[in-house]
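Sequence design from tokenized structure. All designs in this work follow the same two-part layout: the structure record, then the generated sequence. An example of the structure record is given first.
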């Protein structure tokens, strides 16, 4: 693991008047870039050829004498493959441009975690060592961390033969590297039938199925709680709930839009929905639930500080569902900027706006923290 001291040395050589915010051009990059320009920073996104038009053309920044008049992406660096950004000369290019890099899920999906931890000598705004906790099956993954924090998560069913009520089977998609091959089942017989069909269709494999995690299905709404932890704050609360989002998933959302009678007529290929996230929407939660939500965040932050020093820095997302008694269950954790924050881009998060009395998305809140760190000469406290 690249030491925090080494990264502090790198950032100490940066020109504080010319800090640039960078990220891999995918996932939540537009929110990160939009928030950065709102706080007066230049932006640079690292793209893959064939997937760059969104950033290099349609949201490219236009400036008039330095004043931003359109878009939010000042510079696009386009590679044949994302992995090229790991080359020594490319990292030197980032450092010489005073880039502070914001990790997102695409970054950890396209670049091997070992390389991020040991080779990527560019300051990350966030917790470098916590990125690995997102990988289910690691010795100290987020389930391990939730257990240490005594936080609620859906019960695990270790043997599919013990399925006696509705469960969700979590595993990777066989063909779509970044997507899910999830399915539900209410009995061992249904588990065998659905898994056999999905293997036949090439959605999952026998190997992936053996590594799957089976969890008791929590029947209730899903809320992604978008939090922010500020290591710089000394007067007020360090934990902020910026907002809440929820997902649109294919082809699951298509299934729930048709009547049950029609669902029964679907053919073999249509019958089992897929859970590929394709969009997000904004939400709020009952005020009586807010304290419960903050309690989850407090326990999570404390556990990260104890087991993953220095602990969480900046944005993180607790993905939750609520049962009929309004009890939260955490089914996933994003120890970095969440996937649904683009829904709040430019307009801000409901709670973040109210707290800060202006439009504050996750991207902007992150940039606000960078601006404060620059002004107070404390950049080393927000990077790893």
């Amino acid at each position: 693991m690249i030491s925090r001291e080494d990264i502090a040395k790198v950032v100490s050589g940066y020109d504080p008047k010319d800090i640039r915010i960078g990220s891999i051009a995918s996932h939540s990059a537009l929110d990160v870039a939009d928030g950065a320009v709102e706080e007066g920073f230049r932006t640079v996104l690292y793209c893959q050829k064939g997937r760059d038009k969104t950033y290099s053309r349609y949201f490219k920044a236009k400036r008039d004498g330095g004043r931003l008049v359109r878009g939010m992406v000042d510079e696009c660096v386009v590679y044949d493959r994302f992995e090229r950004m790991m080359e020594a000369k490319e990292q030197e290019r980032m450092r010489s441009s005073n880039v502070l890099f914001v990790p997102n899920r695409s970054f950890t999906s396209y670049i091997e975690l070992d390389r991020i931890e040991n080779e990527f000598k560019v300051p990350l705004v966030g917790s470098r060592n916590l990125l690995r906790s997102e990988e289910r099956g690691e010795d100290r993954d987020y389930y391990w961390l939730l257990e240490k924090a005594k936080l609620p998560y859906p019960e695990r069913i270790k043997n599919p033969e013990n399925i006696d009520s509705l469960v969700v089977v979590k595993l990777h998609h066989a063909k779509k590297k970044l997507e899910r091959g999830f399915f539900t089942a209410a009995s061992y017989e249904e588990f065998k039938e659905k898994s056999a069909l999905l293997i036949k269709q090439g959605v999952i494999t026998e190997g992936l199925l053996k590594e799957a995690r089976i969890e008791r299905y929590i029947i209730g709404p899903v809320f992604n709680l978008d939090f922010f932890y500020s290591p710089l704050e000394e007067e007020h609360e360090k934990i902020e709930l910026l907002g809440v989002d929820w997902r649109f998933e294919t082809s699951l959302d298509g299934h729930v839009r048709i009547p049950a009678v029609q669902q029964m007529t679907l053919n073999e290929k249509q019958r089992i929905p897929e859970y590929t996230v394709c969009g997000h929407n904004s939400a709020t939660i009952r005020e009586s639930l807010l304290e419960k939500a903050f309690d989850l965040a407090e326990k999570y932050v404390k556990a990260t500080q104890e087991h993953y020093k220095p602990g969480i820095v900046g944005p993180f997302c607790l993905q939750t569902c609520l049962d009929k008694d309004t009890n939260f269950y955490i089914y996933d954790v994003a120890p970095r900027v969440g996937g649904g924050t683009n829904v709040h881009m430019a307009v801000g998060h409901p709670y973040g706006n109210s707290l800060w009395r202006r439009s504050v998305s996750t991207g902007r809140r992150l940039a606000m923290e960078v601006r404060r760190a620059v002004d107070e000469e404390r950049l080393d406290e927000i990077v790893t």
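Residues 287-307 form the longest helix (21 residues). We note this feature because it recurs in several other targets discussed in the main text.
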